[in-house]
Design a protein that fits this description.
Blueprint lengths: L6 E7 L3 H5 L1 H8 L3 E5 L5 H6 L4 E6 L4 E6 L2 E4 L11 E4 L11 H15 L5 E5 L6 H12 L2 H10 E3 L1 E5 L7 H11 L7 E3 L4 E5 L15 E2 L4 H24 L5 H20 L6 H14 L9 H5 L2 H18 L6 H16 L2
Parallel strand pairs: 1-2, 1-6, 2-5, 3-10, 6-7, 7-8, 11-12
Antiparallel strand pairs: 3-4, 9-11
Length: 350
């Protein structure tokens, strides 16, 4: 079933909880002209059974509110070939860019089918924690594309780099019960998220895009400083709290923050000395982070954060440590301890 209000103009690869709390929400707020077609995702059959509508529970410190999201309108494995599709968003983990990973092949196949069907220009918009993710997915796709397809991609496909941020914990059975109470109908796949959200984008949209700026998205000339702020500070702190917190017996970011705030603050100081953003902007942003982590009702699990450290640690910890070395500064104490804690975690989970 396709929503009568929304034309299917966005394809999305990897429709999980984060995509539904973030890109789908931004598209919802942007207006009712653009609809999302799911290329893949474990929840797609359940979403289809409820006409792709679901509840987004926004969990503040003292209450829950719910918004019905209907920006997802259909599912189709060959949506990229459809000339009506103007852009493709994707949410994959850092491992999704590695040689042999599935997403580059799916994208290359979709773009080949689009070319063969006479489809026009299109934008690819990765939404994950990889630095320069637009260039990363471009390289991954071109690496497996035959020369003729590569030439077509160079002439017709824009790769947009983005920075995304919205904590989206795994949905529990209790959350499903809360969603039913708030909605008045049974939602098998609601999503829980925090009030805060951020999206920064850089790149071209040759076939148009939703007015995501209505929901607060920022379109900038250079996304790298925002990527570095997120990776070197928020994501790096998540890794520190995950590996150190699990050692100390904590389970969530809220619990770990109460105990490890001094270590996190030290890590932030080490990163901000080489971060190319004005100090007042960083201070304001960090104030928001501290507030977000004071919400005990957002159960962001440390074990979830700890997964995939071999892909995460280089961008979150080693990159700012390298920048410090290049700037003539010593490697940070908190950076060193985070790597050590990660190695201990890895050894204990072999």
């Amino acid at each position: 079933m396709v929503s009568p209000r929304r034309a299917p103009r966005i394809a999305h690869l990897g429709l999980g909880a984060f995509a539904r709390s973030h890109q789908a929400w931004y598209t919802q707020v942007a207006g009712d002209e653009w609809g999302i077609v799911a290329l893949s995702g474990r929840v797609v059959p359940q979403l289809a059974a409820q006409h792709y509508r679901y509840g987004l529970i926004v969990r503040s410190v003292d209450s829950d509110s719910v918004q019905v999201i209907d920006s997802v309108v259909a599912s189709s494995s060959d949506a990229i070939a459809n000339p009506e599709i103007s852009l493709v968003t994707l949410t994959v983990t850092e491992a999704g860019y590695l040689p042999g990973a599935r997403p580059p092949g799916l994208l290359a196949d979709g773009l080949r089918a689009r070319r063969d069907a006479g489809g026009g220009a299109i934008a690819l918009v990765p939404c994950d924690n990889l630095p320069s993710n637009g260039e990363a997915i471009r390289g991954a796709v071109l690496a497996i594309a035959e020369p003729e397809l590569g030439l077509w991609i160079d002439n017709n496909v824009s790769f947009v780099s983005t920075m995304v941020d919205r904590i989206t914990p795994a949905t529990t059975e209790a959350d499903i019960a809360i969603a039913e109470e708030l909605l008045g109908w049974h939602d098998a796949v609601p999503v829980v998220t925090e009030p805060f959200t951020e999206w920064v984008l850089h790149g071209d949209f040759p076939a148009g895009r939703p007015e995501w700026e209505k929901a607060g998205a920022q379109f900038v000339d250079d996304v790298e400083p925002y990527e570095q702020r997120k990776l070197w500070m928020l994501n790096a702190a998540h890794s520190l709290m995950a590996y150190r917190g699990l050692e100390l017996g904590y389970q969530t970011v809220f619990e770990a923050w109460q105990a490890l705030a001094p270590e996190v603050e030290q890590l932030w100081q080490e990163a901000r000395e080489v971060l190319p953003l004005p100090a007042p902007d960083v201070d304001e942003w960090l104030g928001n982070v501290r507030t977000r982590w004071q919400n005990p009702r957002i159960e962001h699990r440390l074990e979830q954060i700890a997964q995939g450290g071999e892909q995460k640690i280089p961008a979150r910890i080693l990159a700012p440590a390298t920048r410090r070395k290049e700037s003539g500064l010593p490697v940070g104490v908190a950076e060193t301890e985070t790597v050590a804690a990660y190695m201990r975690y890895r050894e204990s989970h072999q």
